[in-house]
Amino acid sequence: MRRDEPFPSPRSGAMGPDSPSKPVGVSVSVSVSVPENGAKEYRDVEIKGRNAIVTGGGSGIGAAIAASLCEAGARVMIAGRREERLRETVASIRAAGGDIAYRPTDVAQADECAALVAAAVDTYGPVDILVNNAGITSHGQAIEQCTAAEWDRVIAINLRAAFLLTCAVLPAMKAQRRGFILMVSSDSGIYHFPRQVIYGLSKHGMNDLVQYILAEYRQYNVHAVALCPGLTDTEMGLGFNPTVRQNVLSAEAVAAWARWAISQPDNMNVAQPIVLSPMRNPME
Predict the structure, then answer these.
(1) Which of the chain's termini has less CB crowding within 10 Å, N or C?
(2) Looking at 102, 124, 199, 217, which residue is catalytic?
(3) What span, in angstroms and rounded, lies between the C-alpha atoms of 162 and 42?
(4) C-alpha–C-alpha distance, residues 210 and 198, integer Å
């Protein structure tokens, strides 16, 4: 979200009276009520002992999701381009008792996506959970100023990689009749912010990919959810220079919602995007 853009209302989910467009997705407000006694065991029942891949797992939301899944008992392979960050994240999570490994991966390359899935299977076994979190931003340009090179750069990482990784894990998920695919999308995949056309389209595409997965693979017990956070305290999010930093979302809070979605029982799926918005405007 840019400093000069209207701030989405937490109450209505709309952009406000001066919004250039209305939301095209349907956001879901979920209220969770779980008894205190045994709540953790119930919520983690679908995660413990599962094998997961988390892209963009060396920092930010990806690292937070990896840590949360390991805490819940999953075995996790994280991937990213910066090996030093991957090593640091793995060391930290292992120190807390997590079962985690990493593979340096450029998800913009199709062969690297295939190699990542193969490495995860070799290390832990068939993939039960895929978290498509890797992403880059593109903003500041009007539509007429965008280039084909910028389109290719952003779509390759944000959307094509999510598609290729999804294709790679679906056969095993279909065969074992179990799987969960989480798209870490963005509120830019719900709203239409000016000067974010390429990034926004990549995130709208991720949200739609969830719907196609459900349309074709729900019968095989494959779940899919799109998580659409607003401005978050990651390198990418803070690159927008929020003037009130304490008002941005935390990566850990976003990870908590990811874990909640993944931990639901087999007969439940959150079929519409989960939109997470700051209660107070971080750009004021």
Answers:
(1) C
(2) 199
(3) 29
(4) 19
The H-or-E segment that residue 184 falls in is strand 179-184
For the chain, what is the mean pLDDT? 84
- Would you state the structure tokens that stand for residue 68, as one six-digit string? 């949360």
Beta-strand relationship, 274-276 and 51-55:
unpaired
Distance CA 135, CA 40 (A): 30
Q: What is the pLDDT of residues 223-256, one digit of tens each?
A: 999 999 987 776 675 565 565 567 688 899 999 9
Work out the average pLDDT over 156-160.
Answer: 97
Helix pair 251-262, 60-71: axis angle to 10 deg? 50
Q: Give the Å distances, CA to CA, from 49 to 69, 73, 125, 230.
A: 10, 6, 11, 31
Selection from 75, 73, 74, 78 nearest residue 54 by Cα? 78
| Contact indicator for 101, 126 with CB cutoff of 8 Å | no
Closest Cα partner for 197 from 136, 143, 137, 135?
A: 143
**Cα 40 from Cα 24, distance rounded (Å):** 35
Residue 217 a catalytic site member:
no
Quote the pTM value: 0.83
Tens of pLDDT, residue by residue over 123-157, are 999 999 999 999 998 878 999 999 999 999 999 99
How far, in Å, CA of 124 to CA of 260, rounded?
23
